[in-house]
Design a protein that fits this description.
The longest helix is centred in the N-terminal third of the chain and has 17 residues. Helix 7 crosses helix 8, helix 10 crosses helix 11 and helix 13 packs across helix 15. The chain starts with a helix and ends with a helix. It is globular, with a radius of gyration of 25 Å. The strands form eight sheets. A nine-stranded mixed beta sheet has the order 12-13-11-8-6-7-15-16-24, sandwiched between helices. Strands 5-4-18-17-19-20-21 form a seven-stranded mixed beta sheet, with helices on both faces. Strands 22-23-25-26 form a four-stranded antiparallel beta sheet. It is built from 21 helices and 31 strands. It is an alpha/beta fold and 702 residues long. The structure holds 5'-O-[(S)-ethoxy(hydroxy)phosphoryl]adenosine (WTA). 5'-O-[(S)-ethoxy(hydroxy)phosphoryl]adenosine binds next to helix 11, strand 21, strand 25 and strand 26.
Length: 702
């Protein structure tokens, strides 16, 4: 159990009622009272077809749909018979409706430019950052051109294109270009390592990769092109050919071995420069007419077993759900001076839904920032870049993760105090449970005890928010995601699918389909069913429920308190990681015989990774190595190389053997106890763990 869960079981009782819309200059809140929320929610789950038919009117359709839902559990088809295009709904329709000159994307790069005599208005820095603003018309032009680039490389409707890029406007352009021509995108977070890229490219059968020569992060260059090259070589050895790579020139820091001229062939792969290709591309690229249930994107997420899963989202349902959740959760109102900033990387689902699709569909400008919160780095590794960005751009909506909030809290109140953040109206949090202390700090120091906080609970699989306060309607309690989103029939049940009473811990399930739900795990029907639909049946109807893999309870007001994952995945700094992924990386090192990875509560990251490792004695002897710190460092570096820096274990502990039950299952609960308890007592972790005694004692428990 994480420390957040422990705190939330202490029954946080503080309640913060919604404030009048007029205080924020809104004519009204979209949902203005608890009663209004309750009646809307009741209608949305009792008559979902009627409810979603109305919501779908907010999208632009090429052909209207014939029926709202066809449900053959666990397969849902939403808005059947309709055709539309996601890019059209995010970009073209705004141009058509006379909003072409309005800002769509406001982007800020990480590096600060050359020293200028005057700082940017309101900035604390003597040097100006690089800022680009793209209007809807400019975005339409760029997206159309890149759509044509993709077509010229042979990309067709239904193909999957891998995108591995830094947080630059071209990332959004590439995604929208895929949507425009009817290809699905599969975005891989820039922090992943080459083998993680090849795994995902192979699984999705991608032939085209879009990347950049590098990206800026905390003053360093992330070597994206190099990683792609390594992944492609690896793929070629496994018989998978990537036909084309398009590389955006971003950092220019490319070693001589990686410089190439546009159209350079290496093996069966042709390398192109983004800029050269775009210079030649035409601006005429019609939006493909897509069926409601055509694939919009794949996004890989970690599971408890084996390889990451390609979560499949389709066009109309995802768009309908995401435009609604964005609009209601954040009270988005076009033409009212709003500027939305979600600090998540687009490589995660939060970025897909609330940097890009949900925000642009609502015609609200979205801010993208390329880099780290502590660049420029101040004394003690601190930074105030986020507050500087909020002040300079007059951000009205700020959406970030608890792990970031806890870091800012540690950095101290004086950093935000240096900046004028009076533009802020709504604050959001996402990705992991937020501990009440961090919530209160966010409320006081960033929100000036005024801005509502929306603690949004959801998953890659759900497409958008499934539990969240609506800022004008639902009183908040620090640490609770409050009540279900409209259209979400959520419950806490036991293993038998019986709904539990107040404050009884159980499984978080959804009992009815919703438009934003995943439609499958790419290429793995069995996993789709067993992971999400095979565990819990609704005791009242016998129907399979969607199970989120989170444990939670509901208090006497019906508020949800999410306690965290009950499967073998860990949330580290808000990033989902499978323990298996880290274990496989460890055992791929020749020194390692066996590995077991567990999450340990961590003050800032929520969880940290502790790996118990047994070594191969022969390898140690033949390589003249000891089970010492240098071997630990080598194993940590190995995991970073195999999966990515985000998966680096915080602790490696060598053990003689791993504790197992009689049936041979590793006793993770015991390991978790050992890891969280002993951690505080001693840093001397080079001694071998001897689990034999405890293991015997606990052998029957697990
Ligand atoms: C966790 C991220 C508590 C949860 C959008 C879920 C949360 C997993 C919250 C999905 C929240 C996300 N409160 N827990 N507000 N938001 N989670 O797929 O364990 O990266 O199952 O999607 O994050 O992570 P994913």
């Amino acid at each position: 159990m994480s420390h957040n869960a422990i705190e939330s079981t202490l029954q946080e009782n503080r309640t913060f009622p919604p404030r009048p819309a007029s205080e924020f200059g809104f004519p009204k809140w979209h949902v203005d009272s608890l009663d209004e929320y309750k009646s809307l929610h009741a209608r949305s789950v009792q008559d979902p077809e009627d409810f979603w038919r109305d919501e779908a009117k907010r999208l632009d359709w090429f052909r209207p749909f014939d029926s709202v839902l066809e449900w053959h559990s666990p397969d849902a088809k939403w808005f059947v018979g309709g055709t539309l295009n996601a890019c059209y709904n995010c970009v073209d329709r705004h141009v058509q409706n006379g909003h072409g000159e309005e800002p769509a994307i406001i982007w800020e790069g990480e590096p600060l430019g050359p020293r200028t005599s005057h700082a940017a208005a309101g900035s604390n820095y003597a040097r100006e950052p690089e800022v680009r603003v793209l209007s809807y018309r400019e975005l339409q032009r760029e997206v159309s051109r890149f759509g044509n680039v993709l077509k010229s490389l042979g990309v067709k409707k239904g193909d999957v294109v891998t995108i591995y890029m830094p947080m630059v406007p071209e990332l959004a352009i590439a995604m929208l270009a895929c949507a425009r021509i009817g290809a699905a995108h599969s975005v891989i977070f820039g922090g992943f390592a080459p083998s993680a890229i090849s795994e995902r490219v192979m699984d999705a059968k991608c032939r085209v990769i879009v990347t950049a020569d590098g990206g800026f992060r905390r003053g360093d260059v992330v070597k994206l092109q190099e990683n792609v090259e390594e992944a492609i070589n690896h793929l070629a050895n496994h018989g998978h050919i990537v036909n084309h790579v398009v590389v955006l020139r971003r950092t220019g820091h490319v070693p001589p071995s990686q410089r190439f001229a546009d159209g350079f062939h290496q093996g069966s792969t042709t390398w192109h420069w983004w800029q050269d290709q775009m210079a030649r591309a035409s601006e005429a690229c019609p939006c493909a007419e897509m069926d409601s249930e055509d694939m919009l994107f794949l996004l890989y997420t970690s599971g408890s077993t084996g390889k990451p899963k390609g979560i499949l989202h389709t066009t109309a349902g995802y768009l309908a759900f995401v435009q609604m959740t964005a609009r209601l959760t954040f009270n988005l109102i076009p033409d009212s001076g709003q500027l939305f900033w979600c600090s998540a990387d687009i490589g995660w689902v939060t970025g897909h839904s609330y940097v890009l699709y949900g925000i642009l569909m609502n015609r609200i400008p979205t801010l993208m920032y390329e880099g780290a919160p502590n660049f420029p780095t101040l004394e003690g590794g601190k930074g105030d870049r986020f507050w500087d960005i909020i002040a300079r751009h007059r951000v009205t909506h700020f959406y970030t993760a608890p792990t970031a909030i806890r870091t800012f809290m540690k950095w101290g109140d004086d950093l935000p105090a240096r900046h004028d953040m009076s533009s802020l109206k709504v604050l959001g949090t996402v990705g992991e449970p937020i501990n009440p202390e961090a919530w209160i700090w966010y409320h006081k120091v960033i929100g000036r005890e005024r801005c509502p906080i929306v603690d949004t609970y959801w998953q890659t699989e759900t497409g958008g928010h499934i539990g969240t306060p609506l800022p004008g309607a639902i009183p908040t309690k620090p640490g609770s995601c409050t009540l279900p989103m409209l259209g979400i029939d959520a419950a806490i049940v036991n293993e038998q699918g019986q709904e539990l009473g107040p404050n009884q811990g159980g499984l978080f399930v959804i009992r009815k389909p919703w438009p934003g739900m995943l439609r499958g795990v790419y290429g793995n029907r069995e996993r789709f069913i067993s992971n999400y639909w095979g565990r819990v049946k609704d005791a009242r109807t016998g129907q399979p429920c969607y199970f989120s893999a989170d444990g939670a309870r509901r208090d006497s007001d019906g508020y949800f308190w999410i306690q965290g994952r009950i499967d073998d995945v860990i949330k580290v700094s808000g990033h989902l990681l499978g323990t298996m992924e880290v274990e496989s990386a460890l055992v791929s090192h020749p020194a390692v015989a066996e590995a077991a990875v567990v999450g340990v509560p961590h003050e800032i990251k929520g969880n940290s990774i502790c790996a118990f490792v047994t070594l191969r004695p022969h390898w140690l002897i033949s390589h003249k190595r000891e089970p010492d710190q240098s071997l630990k460092n080598e194993l940590i570096a190995h995991v970073a190389h195999e999966v990515g820096a985000l998966a680096k274990p915080d602790q490696i502990r060598f053990a003689e053997g791993l504790p197992k039950t009689r049936s041979g299952k590793i006793m993770r609960r015991l390991l978790r106890d050992v890891a969280s308890g002993v951690e505080k007592i001693t840093q001397d972790t080079t001694t071998l763990e001897d689990f034999s005694v405890v293991a015997k004692l606990r052998a029957d428990e697990e």
